[in-house]
Amino acid sequence: MTNMTNTTDETYEQSLDNIYANLPKQAHGTGERFEIPKFELFAEGNKTFLKNFQVVCDKIRRDKTLLMKYLSKELAVPTDLQGERLILQRKINADIVNKKLEDFVTRYVVCKECKKPDTHIQELGHGIKQLICEACGARNSIRG
Ligand SMILES: [Zn+2]
């Protein structure tokens, strides 16, 4: 499945080692900056396969149905879960899909106050949802 040659792999790993070796140690330990994950995807026929859909959901700790519905609505495309993958029933550019993922994370994952991803969603009924931050305790209502 992989397109990388061994040579590329080795060089990549070596350069990563160098980068880490040269990084200054963070003063406050873990997760200073949350990095939004990216979908690994490929198109086949008229479909787009998000290979790491489950992995992304695990990373941002959000329900896969929520993200699936969001993408389906935002990209106006039917979707289909297939194991760990999500299939979009149309060919869609990777940049567009990943931009939607960024929007999703900004809206449904990252705390508006402290910018940390340590949050969960609470349903208040009547379609009202709040994003509750476990780091700073902020509550923000989620629209839509
Ligand atoms: Zn917070």
**Strand order of the biggest β-sheet:** 1-2-4-3
Strand content: 15-25%
| CATH fold label of the largest domain | Defensin A-like
Rg calculated over all Cα atoms? 18 Å
- Helicity level: 25-40%
Total of domains: 2
Number of helices: 4
CATH class of the largest domain: Alpha Beta
Going by CATH, the architecture of the largest domain would be 2-Layer Sandwich
Rounded to the nearest angstrom, the distance between the terminal CA atoms is 38 Å
Number of E-state strands: 7
Task: Return the string of H and E elements.
Answer: HEEHHEEHEEE
Largest sheet: 4 strands, antiparallel
List each distinct ligand once: zinc ion
Which structural category do the helix and sheet elements fall into? alpha+beta
Describe the structure.
Helix 3 crosses helix 4 (94-108). With 144 residues, the protein is of the alpha+beta class. The protein has 4 helices and 7 strands, in the order αββααββαβββ. The strands form 2 sheets. A 4-stranded antiparallel sheet has the order 1-2-4-3, covered by helices on one side. The chain folds into 2 domains: 36-109, Defensin A-like (2-Layer Sandwich), CATH 3.30.30.170; 111-144. 35% of the residues lie in helices and 23% in strands. The structure holds zinc ion. Zinc ion is lined by residues 111, 113-114, 116, 133, 135-136, 138.
